[in-house]
Specification:
The chain is built from three helices and no strands. It is mostly helical. It has a domain of 31 residues. The protein starts with a helix and ends in a 5-residue tail after the last helix.
């Protein structure tokens, strides 16, 4: 059966209008869980201040580590998230 792209687009736009989130309700993938809104202006100010102080672009609340990374553990977390939600994220 061919995909009705017009119906798919209409459903996606209707979902966005109702929720503010872009998601295709006709797909078999569940929507990502809701997240707390990001204050992009505050984040930009923090990143700019970090750059002014260090000359490097980064989010200073991001933990920096020199310890070895357990990539198998990271992969297990990502895989578990995908299994639970249908989305790939850490």
């Amino acid at each position: 059966m061919a995909t009705d792209w017009n119906a798919d687009a209409a459903a996606t736009i209707a979902f966005h209008t109702a929720t503010g989130s872009w998601y295709d309700p006709l797909s078999n993938i569940p929507p990502a869980p809701p997240t707390t809104p990001v204050d992009w202006n505050a984040l930009a100010a923090t990143v700019n201040a970090a750059h002014d102080a260090t000359g490097h672009w980064y989010v200073p609340t991001t933990p920096v580590t020199t310890a070895p990374i357990d990539w198998n553990a990271e992969a297990a977390i990502v895989t578990a998230n995908h299994d639970a939600t249908g989305h790939w994220f850490l």
